[in-house]
Amino acid sequence: MSEYQQIVLASRPRGTPTEDNFRIENAQIPIPTDGQVLVRTLYLSLDPYMRGRMNDAKSYAAPVNIGGVMEGEVVAVVTESRHADYRVGDVVQGRIGWRTHAAVAPTVLKRVDTRGNALTTALGVLGMPGFTAYSGMTVIGQPKPGETVVVAAASGPVGSLVGQLAQLAGARAVGIAGGPTKCAYLRDELKFDGVVDHRSADMAGDLAKLCPDGIDVYFENVGGAIWQAVLPLLNRYARVPACGVIAYYNGPGSAEEGLLSQTMTAIVRQSLQIRGFINTEFVDRYYSDFLNELAPKVAAGEIRYREDIVDGLQEAPKAFIGMLAGRNFGKLLVKVG
Ligand code: NDP
To answer: What is the whole-number distance in angstroms between the Cα of residue 243 and the centre of ligand 1?
Structure first.
């Protein structure tokens, strides 16, 4: 065979991609130059992030150009080598895209290391998705014994590992998936403690029943209606590793959802760390430091402030309503006495 195939982005999708957005191309198998190897793809990983690469939009990675080969990671075998460190038959992985062959410098490759497991695991449970679950749970989720961990897209490579890591940490794992087959897999094979079908008539109610003590870790893979169902159940100090929001990848369904989509997408793409608090949480530790440091500065005029004082308690409602409309200018106070 002297021809190889590759799949390029033919056009950018509007909403859900169609086959017309892709084009299969045939070309002569390239000949590696000095320092390169020729690899033949064994497995190509298809992952949700690829939908983002089809858009010409600012993101954490550049989009695929029109006519460009679709991006993706593969496991491949070296079929020709002009590099001293690689021999024919070596099995490697790397982001060479949706193509059957490529002549590349090995700097874009690494040797597959699955410690005796199937080659395919290099693209799944022991590859990028698995590491995503592992790192998100270790660094952010930090499940503790007895806590409740919820994850959606739970039968996929990220979610299924999230649930299992939760259980290894002694937490309860509640998985959300679409349809009875996926739910049965989570319940019967992965032994999740609870399973919710997000296509059920009352997904939010089903989830609440399975989380009587609330949710301590929500590993966010989806967004959309699932996030809305999770939000009221989150406990104080719950952790939310914001990993992905696949519900929005084809675009938000409504203008309102668009705002939530922008917010959640920014949280994921910019690795934003959002930690809520109520000041009372810190009073015991910091209040005396605060007064000791700032009161002298206020007294010395080094810290300035402005007050907006209305006269008479009867003015309070109007002042308050005015404040909500921005009509106060400085700290709003009512002079009562
Ligand atoms: P999966 O193999 O689980 O595939 C995606 C699944 O998402 C689908 O099978 C479907 O499962 C579910 N899904 C899609 N749309 C919806 C929706 N509207 N509501 C509910 N569920 C939906 O994917 P991965 O395990 O590879 O990835 C899971 C998430 O992790 C994605 O958001 C992905 O972008 C993100 N990710 C993030 C990474 C990072 O570094 N931050 C790296 C890797 C992945 P079902 O039928 O159960 O609904």
So the answer is: 9
For residue 1, what pLDDT is reported?
59
Please answer whether residues 154 and 165 qualify as being in contact, where contact means their C-beta atoms are separated by less than 8 angstroms.
no
Read off the pTM.
Answer: 0.92
Q: What number does the ligand 1 atom closest to the CA of 48 have?
A: 34
**Neighbour tally for 140: CB within 10 Å:** 15
Q: What is the pLDDT of residues 248-263, one digit of tens each?
A: 999 988 888 899 999 9
Q: Which residues of the chain, if any, have pLDDT below 50?
A: none
| H or E element at residue 173 | strand 172-177
**Helix H or strand E encompassing 29:** none
What pairs with residue 37 in β-bridges?
81, 104
Q: Write down the residue that tokens 């660094």 correspond to.
A: 139
Question: Looking at ligand 1, which residue's alpha carbon is closest to its atom 4?
Answer: 156
